[in-house]
Amino acid sequence: MPDNNDVLDVADRLWRGELPIEQAHPFSPMGGATEVTDGCAFVASFANISAVSTDDGLVLVDTGSQLFAPSALEELRRWSSDRVDTAVYSHGHIDHVFGVPLIEEEAKANGWAPPTVVAHEALPARFDRYILTAGYNEVINQRQFRVPNLRWPTEYRYPDRTYRDTLNIDVGGVTFELHHARGETDDHTWTWVPERKVLCCGDFFIWACPNAGNPFKVQRYPHEWAVALRDMAALEPEVLLPGHGLPIVGADRVAQALEDTATLLDALHDQTVEMMNAGASLDEVIHTVRAPDGLVDRPYLQPIYDDPEFIVRNVWRLYGGWWDADPSHLKPAPETDLAVEIATLAGGPRRLADRALELADAGDLRMAAHLVELAGRAAPGDTGIREARADVYKRRARAERSLMAQNVYNWAADRD
Q: Which residue of 73, 261, 301, 363 lies most exposed, with the fewest beta carbons within 10 A?
């Protein structure tokens, strides 16, 4: 991991392609507080914290996760000891919203007024849903991040003030323009600080292929996301502070990063919609739509977390619902019954598993996964088939760059 004091240098080297993104992965916290422009600091954490100094105290965009907020706020205090006046939630994902109780404890200890928390009006409903589905979210996030001891929170610091479309707030003579747009979430806020030419974009940009297709989570909105990115670019920001990953400094670079991300999202969205309008099935769509040549090779758009194929599926879900246009999937037989029937036709579950390994050896890991999964369902107690299944899925994990795909396949390999 690069030196904590070199955040801007690392960002520059990443941009130039001198450093592979895996060596400064946007979900690997660097730590440390860096002043990116006068009166504006950036704490590089699992989910970043951006801070702007005003005459009335600090304004923070995001406050950190349960695990990393204490260390991130400690680093922030190395930069400024001023009271926190306002905290803006860029959105309600739990890695961005858990530092406020710590800030309130600090305020009480120092005799300060507590911070005001501002967010989009849809954010409280997200917290309500998280409480309702805590068990489900615990399961899927353990799987997504391969953290078996992860516990999903059921207590949240709700915002004090919400807004619908835009909100301008003045804190200590500095203007903060809050803008809502649907993107990774339906409650997303991006914040523009015109006096400083600083854009705090939340997770609209994360130094990776946009997280617009997450297979575990609720609907994302690629087209509206692209529109929001172009709205940001029109303001000509000189500093971009993302929710994950490192800052981008320089108007030309910021404009390129925002426009390239929008172009990628629009391309995947528009191709998918065109095929849907022509009557294609989901299977046809996901095996036809492709990202434009070169875009996913950009240092800041590589599929190291989400995957363009997953984004295509989310576009389908947005417009087409859950049915994939395969009639047999509308009211299917139980998957285990189907597996037993296919295994019988193939000559038994072991034959399916053997063929899966042959296909894996030949490099066809997609087909190998289908067959070995059928074999495992048809004969769940067969040790040899379980070993074959683990082998195939471990190979699939090694072949993927997307963290989400890697973790799903590693989970599949580790099943009993």
A: 363
Close Cβ partners of 416 (under 8 Å, ≥ 6 residues apart):
386
Q: Provide the pairing of β-strand 189-193 with 174-180.
A: antiparallel
CB-CB contact of 195 with 294 (8 Å): no
**What six digits make up the tokens of 24?**
């400064």
CB atoms within 10 A of CB 78: 11
The first and second tokens of residue 345, run together, are 């036709």
With contact defined as beta carbons under 8 Å apart, do 261 and 206 qualify? Answer: no
Model pTM? 0.95
> Would you tell me how many other CB atoms lie within 10 Å of the CB of residue 121?
14
**In order of start, what are the domains of the chain with their CATH numbers?**
4-265 (3.60.15.30), 331-414 (1.25.40.880)
For 327-377, the pLDDT digits (tens) are 999 999 999 999 999 999 999 999 999 999 999 999 999 999 999 999 999
DSSP state of 259: H
Q: Hey, what long-range contacts does 190-196 have (CB within 8 A, 24 or more apart)?
A: 190/90, 190/228, 190/232, 191/61, 191/88, 191/90, 192/232, 192/235, 192/237, 193/40, 193/52, 194/235, 196/37, 196/38, 196/39, 196/40, 196/52, 196/239
